[in-house]
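User: These chains co-purify. Model them together.
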Amino acid sequence: MIREDFPVLKQLVYGKPLVYFDNGATTQKPMQVIDTINRMLLQMNSNIHRGVHFLSEQSSELYENARRTIQDFIHADLSQEVIFTSGATGSINAIAFSFGERYVQEGDEVIVSEMEHHANIVPWQVMCGRKRAKLKVIPFNETGELDMDAYRNLFSQKTKIVAIAHISNTLGTINPVKEIIQIAHAHGVPVLVDGAQAIQHVDVDVQDLDCDFYVFSGHKIYGPTGIGVLYGKSKWLYEIPPYQGGGDMVDCVKFEKTTYNDLPFKFEAGTTNYIGAIGLASAVDYIRTTGFDGIQAYEENLKEYALQRLQSIPGLTIYGTSRHRIGIFSFLLNGIHPYDAGMLLDKMGIAVRTGTHCTQPVMDHFDVDGTVRASLAMYNTKEEVDIFCAGLERVKKMFS
Amino acid sequence: MTLNEVQEKIIEEFSIFDDWMDKYNYIIELSKDLAPFNEANKTKQNLINGCQSRVWLNAEFVEGKVVFTADSDAIITKGIVSMLIQVLSNRTPQEIKDADLYFIDRIGLKQNLSPTRSNGLLSMVKQMRLYAIAYEAKMNQKTE
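Assistant: Joint model of the two components:
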């Protein structure tokens, strides 16, 4: 059983077995990833792409292997289309800046959706502010699905890019990204997909999706923090300027003019988080060794069970009821404040997230201040869902 | 009762609970003891915004003492607010400024007042001290 591979999950919290349902925020790490990071620090640490010595060559090779592992996992055409960043937020900020510099002018438009994480709103707002461009927003309906007709009508001659979540971190909705991309491409507009909540749950094939950019964080897919991926079609990555200058990203530095290194190094200024990248590759290896198909089937089954159990609790309202969803459930219980529910669940050993989940527009849509969010991962079990639902019943009683 | 006597009283009340849920049940009960907050005082100026829960705090200066009233949208926060009011309201500015709020730690609720818990409670305590400082300055001005 894979649960055994995750040391964190074995502990007691306040004397109770930990039920970790905050996987949307971050996931736990299997021993295999921890071992890889330890081995890097104990035996192989050396800066990459710099030295001629044994250790440096070894870590450089592992780092470039990690890039190929990611390339393979997301089915990218070329390994240089995989850029290592600090995380999904870092990746989006990089594209918002670089793409904006190259292509966005006063009066241009950027399309995002109402269900985006703040990380896929604010970087675009900052860029639009700088360029005097406008942000256009795709609304979602009461079930938490995007209004595709409204989306089609948002395009104009001024539309420069679409930035959209693959899966909503609050509603759990799986967006029809392939269709979204086709529509945008019909207008000649590129699309960035925020895969922070998708990469660990569904197959991602960037060539099949035909997305122009795809971003995700390592720590949400059982890898370390501080590492993430920016996939970009090479035709864009060649065209847009680097967003950070420094070592390793240059070809030739003269005070008169500096020329930049090739892809992917043009976008990897300074010493990268190579230990994080190698750790992330190890997490991807772990998933593939375990069997991603099997993981997805298990998660699907667990999600259906959790949904059915949650729906049977009187007084519980789920926000986001699309059929196309993963095991992320935002809800309110009998009008109980999410903070109150979260505090009491915590004392029962159950970890959930409470608040706005970095999606204030989603809260505004439903006219609530916040929700409780339970987000499941491959190591969660039906027994844990039962403990969680019993916990919710207990919370309800305490406030009745 | 002095400020510290109230703290001791609260610590004693909590000492009978060894289970977390009993403790929180009691906090929920305490939230009901909080004097009703005048809705008209739920102003933007009185609002202390945490990202998890909101607290409203109103202060008045009556005969040399600071009288606090407060409210919260979350019940557990409200219960803790109720204790802070018990300890700090109706005290002189000097007492509030000098107060060492050790009871929070002793009853095991330290995490509720840590900077990482953005429930507004830590800011509320800060705000209470600021009121004390402001009223003291006003008082000194008058006597000068």
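Residues 33-288 of chain A form a domain with the Aspartate Aminotransferase; domain 2 fold (CATH 3.40.640.10).
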